[in-house]
Amino acid sequence: MGDAKIWVRNADVVVTMDGDRSEPANAHVLVEDGRIASVGSAGPEDPSGWEVIDAAGCVVTPALVNTHHHLYQTLTRAVPAGQDALLFGWLKALYPLWARMRPEDMFVSARLGLAELALSGCGTSSDHLYIFPDGVRLEDTIEAAAGIGLRFHATRGAMSVGESAGGLPPDSLVEGEADILEDCIRVIDAFHDPSDGAMVRIGIAPCSPFSVSRELMRDAALLAADKGVRLHTHLAENAEDVAFSLERFGCRPGDYAGELGWVGEHVWHAHCTALDPAEISLFARTGTGVAHCPSSNCRLGSGIAPVRAMLDAGVPLGLGVDGSASNDSGSLLPEARQAMLLQRVRNGAAAMSAREALEMATLGGARLLGRAGEIGSLETGRRADLAVWDISGLAAAGAWDPVAALVLCGPFPVRDLLVEGRPVVRGGMLTRVDAAAVAEAARRRAARLAS
Question: Distance between CA atoms of 417 and 429, rounded to whole angstroms?
Fold first, then answer.
């Protein structure tokens, strides 16, 4: 827990994401013992002993929450193979590269991706790791997150149905299903922290219906219920994905998920670009969440997710950058802008506001990960995860609405980022690692993979 008493002073606007969505101007945020002590017009009664962050000329928001990533892919950005392919062709082009990865590659790739997220104002990230070649373990990514200082929801993914059995991945990247479940139990017992303010939580995440069996999907759901952890997978990612489900299972992806126990408030699915109205209704009734990944969906030609329809129906929605081999950026605030723009392209200029997009990136993401009572809003008693955005420069000069400017203008790197009241970014610089060293290590490991 953060020890310092921190006074975030004189912010132009504080975006609280509280029940009233209040946005006090010329406001202060007081942080004590890793929690928000107060938000409003008053500073501390006795300013001595308080560390001051001057937020004049800045907007303060909750730290952003990333709900879908594949951090191992950060070493395979802009790979020529598969650059212009749809999802299945892209995966087939990249599987052989990912099969070469080693534990050190996983750590370096995750550290790079998490550093990039931190500099984009993200305080919490999930990760979906579903390949485990050459001794790779989930803790390779958990250690990277601890080094950067972010909250981390690591999901133990898996692939168990290879090409020889009618699946998409090569046989060299699949695992035995008993081994998968055994390792899920191992990492949950070793690392999952259900307590308030936890820095690490574990989820169970078979990769996709086209890479695991029906039995593993069902067993994973049963294990998650037994262990009290969340479930995550890819679903209805594009037309190919839906066609595979209809041919292999005789039903649409949402029906398949419902049959196997993959709906409920403890479940969130990535992408869902191809959900139909009945599937949207199912997700809304059951509180099943969706991680919307707009840039990746565009990059892979997967389509425009029906986000407006999902929001209107009451489906929980958050944002994800997705893997950096299909984005190829890992910055979260631009995803809010992209989400807003795509809904306007599909449904008209009033389809999504800048504030709705920002809410998806903060409170929406916290809800998706089961943490809406802890993070995602700036309210007394919440964990002190907050971002300070300097809007005094060229990028927002002339902007009349500073909150909307975060989404409409920019791009904006975060100036200061606190997680659990601890500084992760100060003055635009990472506090725990040297960014140049992180980048150089990534370049060396990527060169090895390319060779």
Answer: 10
How distant, in Å, are the alpha carbons of 374, 392, 395 from that of 365?
12, 27, 26
Whole-angstrom Cα distance, residue 333 to residue 254?
29
pTM over 0.90: yes
Range list for CATH 2.30.40.10 in the chain:
6-62+374-428
Nearest to 150 by CA among 188, 115, 194, 109: 115
CA distance 351 to 93: 36
Give Cα separations from 53 to 11, 50, 169, 325 (angstroms): 10, 10, 49, 36
Per-residue pLDDT of the chain (451 residues; tens, 9 = 90+): 456 899 999 999 999 999 999 999 999 999 999 999 999 998 998 888 999 999 999 999 999 999 999 999 999 999 999 899 999 999 999 999 999 999 999 999 999 999 999 999 999 999 999 999 999 999 999 999 999 999 999 999 999 999 999 888 999 999 999 999 999 999 999 999 999 999 999 999 999 988 999 999 999 999 999 999 999 999 999 998 899 999 999 999 999 999 999 999 999 999 999 999 999 999 999 999 999 999 999 999 999 999 999 999 999 999 999 999 999 999 999 999 999 999 999 999 999 999 999 999 999 999 999 999 999 999 999 999 999 999 999 999 999 999 999 999 999 999 999 999 999 999 999 999 999 999 999 999 999 999 8
Q: Are 68 and 291 in contact (CB under 8 A)?
A: yes
- Among residues 253, 240, 303, 248, which one has the least CA distance to residue 283? 253
> In the chain, which residues fall in CATH 3.20.20.140?
64-368
User: What CATH number belongs to 6-62+374-428?
Assistant: 2.30.40.10
Instruction: Determine whether domain 64-368 maps to CATH 3.20.20.140.
Output: yes
